[in-house]
Amino acid sequence: MTAEKIGVPVLAILLLLLSRWGFSQELLRDTVELDPVEVAAVPMSTYAYGQRVRRLDLSETEGTAGGSLGDLLQDRTGLFIRSYGPGMTASLSMRGTSAGHNALFWNGLPVNSPSLGQSDYSIFPIAGMDQVDIHYGSAGALYGTDAIGGAVHLSTSLPVNQKTNTSLSTQLGSFGNWRQEISHQQRIQSISFRTSLYRNVLANRFPYTDWASPDTPVRYQDHARVNQRGWVQDIRANLGNAQVLQASFWLGEIQREIQPVLGSSGRDTQKDVNLRAVLDYIKKGPKITWNIKTGLVRDRMEFNAAVNLTLQALLAAELDWEPSEHWQSRSGVRYTRIQGDLSTYSHSEQRMELYQATNYKPLDNLGFSLQLRQLLYEGQPVPFTPGLGVFWTFFKNPVQQWELTGNASKGFKVPTLNDRYWVPGGNPDLASEQSWSKELGVDQLFTNKHLQFSNRLSLFHMSVDNWIIWLPEESYWTPKNVRKVVSKGLEYFMEWELKQGAWDLGWEAEYAWTHTSNRSVAAGNEVDLGKQLPYVPRHKLQLRWNVKKDRFSGFVSGQYTGERFVTSDNRTVLPAYSLWGAGISHDFAWKEWVSGTLGLQVNNVWNTEYQILRLRPMPGRNVQFNIHLDL
User: Where do the domains of the chain lie, and which CATH numbers do they carry?
Assistant: First the structure.
């Protein structure tokens, strides 16, 4: 099934037949009171003692409203997104790892490509999302393969007191960019549902300096158009006796003209059609919660004339139980079947995982968490994966709290289908990549009637063995386990919110210092020893100021990305850059049945010329106008 068969006009007619429609973005944040949402399952972060899990507030995404998950993470966090251009392929680097060392989940369903071993964060729009959680640091014992650097969780949820209403959003931007979304939500007795449709058109006709041509002329980008559309459906049924059945469906299509590098006349095109579906049965009791999950991920990518298709089918069961006030436990099993039909090979495999997580709190201010996981794939066991975390609240009074945290964990990544079976060059004898990670942190929280202030400082050290890289051999390239990488660094996050009369002021800052080094390399590449990995900035700083008074609000944001080495020997470098943005918005209400928000943002205020990746130009100053209506 392709997106052409969605029948957008038919869906729009169905929406119009539903009397009154609606959309409610439930705004979730760690530090403020929020409207409750209907989430019956126990959060995975429950067993992440000693590690940081940050929840992004989607109410403060003015600068990236209507954009992608990659835009959101680049603009709002200290994480580095390797973007090939606006709307082009974007991958995540967390704590110095590569794109394939970070797991991505949607409603608990792993969505990394089994052929590439990673996700393209540009094809996940913010439209249709309610919550984004970022788990920093190795978490293989909790989430399985790929979570060496960390994990990102996307989720949708329906509000407890769901109303029948509708929402319309549109964003008009510079360079011929236009984004739209329509959403309807309703509750009929014990059944709640929400339907969302979105469409993004990015012409990307921005000017850039062509440094690869004589006299460095200014040109206009003429081959970077993006057309994206999709449908997100959420349904929840309360079955009685504390039983819930919830399902989510996401069908998306994106067609892209691949932006060529400077000096190239390439005219590549790519089309992705992605189908994701998940169904959960949850039964919650006083001390025991059952969760049975089944899901499907189907990805079809057409690059020029080559077609690659992968399919993942999942069946899992979890049991959370609390035998006493001091103990909490989760036991689970997950079965996955993978089928890959690519341009040069076809292969299927099965994976079985058993996992166990246990929390023990001997005191209210002291807790320990132990996680264990064992994966079998192709009948072979991945090395046993443990994790251990601890927290100690060593000071607490009515307005202030200080906490020490620690974690040691093992992570792993199984070789991708392309690594093992690509023709020519695939290597079926590859070993799984393995990591050991250690982390120490301190958290501080201050709260009184008007001010809430929090800090977190983390130090981490991670070693990755059997790192897979592709190397030339005879007339083709082949992957081998030849690299050992050590990554260490510091992460700092600060956030405060001040309420004084009608004024609501906020500020957040996130800084990451990351140092990576090759400790072993392939023969002939000894010059790479001890060098920083390519495209891992040592410094990334993100700042944001928010202000709100009555119906008006505004923000100023800034980010600094340090220099990045282009090659493993560190001889070619991209300069550091800083970007600033600002925006204002106004909430309004007209009569009793229409309310909404008007917004205006300016991105890259100082018209900075910069490249995230070498020879990939990025847009200069641009303006976006947003309008959001609730009916």
Answer: 3-630 (2.40.170.20)
